[in-house]
């Protein structure tokens, strides 16, 4: 009875107001029904370890270094560092790319009381922080369930798209969903390990040559940042492919659609990609249709006063990242940036133009035991992918906005989602002709297609429901609802930071699924 009372108190104490979702996407709903009480906590939940840590040495070393640096510079040693030891330029003040310094002052340069105080502080902290048995943030049945799911040979738990929580799928179901993308020969090549490593060796030579040519113009900090990432990722220089399940779209042809993602954190070109992203973001922000987020969108919508014949419309690019053909878009962008050099004074134009093909042609990645190369399209998960998608279509978009300025007085786009105000002609046949021609013009960009909503008084866009009321714009919060049948809310515990739930069996071959006959 005492145990039951204690568990009830804990359940009430940890109750949170946010509803976490879990979705069983398996064909026969084979995930345990009670899984909602664990996976419903979300993929950012961390299980408390059995005991608290008593290993504080790293923390003490960091405190000692930070304290020493603060005392050193507080003593008037600002000029101690020789700024001539490295090349300094305006770019280094602007760039956020740097390798964390390990420098610390010599003990002889610090006052005698500094280390005495530190030693006394650390000594008292050691007496307080001793290893103890920790209170678990899981109930007993949740612990048993966690052990059961970890040992389940069939189920894995990937994320869903749009942040709608984790889901349960079978291993074969997940592999097949990923291979559906990788079998697209227009976008991906499946290569041998030797072919991929040869391509990466050639890429390494090209990046090293680029670093040599533009070391001075990109700045010492960025140069070291890119070089350090190449060294750190040299052992396994491949991106990692995975999929997010798009449950808000509903099932299509008996399967759940997925969004392909390729994390390039472990790739050879990751550091260079971060630099390219820094250069492209200011260019993207200068595009006429650009807006930063929903807050900026609402501010701009609030200024509108609409005529009776003006209605709202939205457009959505179909798989924009995948369908942005690499070669034609590289040609367009590498011509567009130099021709507008007077607008983009934050970087070396030649360095950026030469870096773009190194990043967007070099997406080598692994999925299980498969080695792949993305030959067309942009990988979601590559740092410069969002500004790249913004800029590439903006080149075409600028011509469209000029042509249709009379009928499209307001238009904004956030990567692959656009919203505008369309001036409807009083003659229905004229309106239909103009509307059809506008949609056709939007489609004329190297195979990228768009889906449109018809002009209306109310649209759902991003996380807002936007309506026209008496010629002015009103907005309310809009949240996409999943089309999964099995949605289980859980509000038992407070979510904490954690690792991904997804678990793949490394011993299983993916290539056997690609070629069933073998």
Give a description of the structure:
- The chain is α+β, with helices and mostly antiparallel strands and 518 residues long.
- 41% of the residues lie in helices and 14% in strands.
- Helix 3 packs antiparallel against helix 5 (113-128), helix 8 (193-218) runs antiparallel to helix 14 and helix 10 runs parallel beside helix 15.
- The longest helix is centred in the middle third of the chain and has 26 residues, at 193-218.
List its salient traits:
four-stranded antiparallel sheet, 41% helix, alpha+beta, 518 residues, five-stranded mixed sheet, 14% strand, globular, 15 strands
| Poorly predicted residue ranges | 11-18, 79-93, 484-508
Give the radius of gyration. Answer: 27 Å
Our estimate of the beta-strand percent is: 5-15%
Number of strands: 15
Number of contiguous helices: 17
Helix content: 40-55%
Could you give the order of strands across the largest sheet? 4-9-8-5-6
Shape: globular
Main beta sheet: 5 strands, mixed
Q: For the residues shown, what is the average pLDDT?
A: 85
What class would the helix/strand composition place it in? Answer: alpha+beta
Q: Compute the separation of the termini in Å.
A: 59 Å
């Amino acid at each position: 009875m005492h145990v039951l009372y204690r568990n009830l108190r804990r359940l009430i104490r940890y109750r949170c107001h946010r509803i976490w979702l879990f979705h069983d996407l398996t064909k026969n709903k084979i995930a345990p029904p009670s899984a909602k009480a664990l996976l419903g906590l979300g993929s950012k939940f961390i299980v408390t370890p059995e005991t608290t840590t008593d290993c504080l040495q790293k923390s003490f070393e960091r405190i000692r270094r930070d304290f020493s640096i603060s005392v050193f510079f507080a003593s008037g040693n600002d000029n101690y560092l020789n700024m001539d030891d490295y090349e300094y330029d305006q770019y280094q003040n602007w760039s956020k790319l740097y390798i964390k310094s390990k420098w610390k002052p010599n003990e002889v340069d610090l006052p005698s009381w500094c280390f005495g105080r530190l030693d006394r502080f650390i000594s008292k902290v050691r007496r307080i922080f001793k290893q103890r048995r920790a209170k678990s943030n899981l109930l007993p049945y949740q612990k048993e369930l966690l052990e059961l799911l970890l040992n389940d040979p069939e189920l894995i738990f990937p994320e869903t798209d749009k942040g709608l929580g984790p889901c349960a799928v079978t291993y074969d179901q997940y592999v097949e969903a990923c291979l559906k993308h990788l079998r697209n020969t227009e976008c991906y090549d499946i290569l041998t390990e030797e072919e991929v490593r040869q391509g990466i060796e050639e890429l390494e030579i090209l990046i090293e040559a680029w670093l040599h040519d533009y070391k001075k113009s990109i700045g010492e900090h960025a140069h070291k940042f890119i070089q350090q990432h190449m060294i750190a990722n040299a052992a396994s220089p491949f991106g990692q492919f995975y999929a997010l399940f798009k449950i808000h779209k509903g099932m299509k042809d008996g399967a759940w659609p997925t969004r392909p993602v390729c994390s390039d954190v472990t790739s050879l070109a990751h550091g260079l990609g971060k630099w390219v992203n820094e250069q492209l973001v200011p260019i993207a922000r200068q595009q006429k249709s650009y807006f930063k987020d929903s807050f900026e969108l609402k501010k701009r919508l609030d200024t509108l006063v609409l005529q009776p014949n003006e209605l709202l419309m939205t457009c959505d690019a179909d798989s924009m990242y995948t369908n942005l053909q690499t070669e034609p878009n590289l040609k367009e962008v590498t011509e567009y940036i130099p021709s507008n050099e007077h607008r983009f004074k934050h970087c070396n134009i030649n360095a950026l133009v030469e870096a773009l093909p190194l990043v967007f042609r070099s997406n080598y990645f692994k999925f299980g035991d498969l080695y792949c190369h993305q030959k067309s399209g942009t990988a979601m998960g590559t740092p410069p992918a969002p500004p790249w998608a913004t800029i590439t279509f903006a080149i075409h978009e600028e011509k469209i906005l000029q042509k249709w300025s009379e009928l499209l007085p307001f238009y904004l786009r956030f990567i692959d989602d656009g919203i505008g105000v369309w001036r409807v002609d009083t003659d229905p046949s004229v309106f239909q002709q103009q509307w059809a021609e506008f949609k056709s013009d939007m489609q004329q960009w190297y195979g990228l297609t768009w889906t449109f909503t018809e002009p209306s008084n109310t649209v759902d866009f991003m996380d807002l429901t936007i309506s026209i009321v008496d010629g002015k714009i009103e907005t309310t919060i809009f949240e996409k609802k999943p089309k999964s049948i099995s949605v289980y809310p859980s509000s038992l515990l407070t979510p904490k930071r954690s690792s991904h739930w997804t678990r793949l069996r490394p011993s299983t071959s993916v290539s056997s699924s690609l070629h069933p006959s073998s």
